[in-house]
Write a structure and sequence with these properties.
By secondary structure, this protein is mainly alpha-helical. The protein has one domain: Ribosomal protein S7/S5 (Ribosomal Protein S7). It is built from 6 helices and 2 strands. Strands 1-2 form a two-stranded antiparallel ribbon. Helix 1 (about 20-30) crosses helix 2 (about 35-50) and helix 3 crosses helix 4 (about 95-110).
Length: about 160
């Protein structure tokens, strides 16, 4: 790296929940710079989650945060060349990257679902992830399994 690292820009909290994490999620979900559309999709999904789950003591935003924490990976494998061979080395993930990865997985697997609108897809994936099921959680489990399988190469860590 030649130049200095880019500094983190502060995110404005979202208008409805006053939460920066929501804004970060919406920014990742947004296509073609259409933030208002992305916010509408997210808020509609949260409303659907609120309607579907009958849990009175937990808000829909708490359910979304639970889903996000259930999708977060703790270890991942990184490729490293050692003496002409490439090894998959399990490594701990930085907290910031954990959140980013969880958001990416939740959004991408929501997009692959079969419901009619994106809000319904996102709501279904959030509910599934909160119950520790669904494609995004399966991705986290697979990532952890791969790291566990390659634990023998962890001494190559840099």
């Amino acid at each position: 790296m030649r130049k200095r690292q880019a500094k983190k820009r502060p995110l404005l909290p979202d208008p409805r929940f006053n939460d920066q994490l929501v804004t970060r999620f919406v920014n990742m979900m947004m296509w073609d710079g259409k933030k208002s559309v992305a916010f509408k999709v997210f808020y509609d999904a949260i409303d659907i989650v609120e309607a579907k789950k009958g849990d009175a003591e937990k808000t829909a935003l708490d359910t979304w945060k639970d889903a996000l924490s259930n999708v977060m990976p703790h270890v991942e494998v990184r490729s490293r060349r050692v003496g002409g061979a490439t090894f998959q080395i399990p490594m701990q993930i930085r907290p910031d990257r954990k959140v980013s990865t969880a958001m990416k997985w939740l959004i991408s697997y929501s997009r692959k679902r079969n419901e009619k609108s994106m809000a319904q897809r996102l709501a279904s994936e959030i509910i599934a992830a909160a119950k520790e099921e669904g494609a995004a959680v399966k991705k986290r489990v697979d990532t952890h399994k791969m790291a566990e399988a390659n634990k023998a190469f962890s001494h190559f860590r840099f």
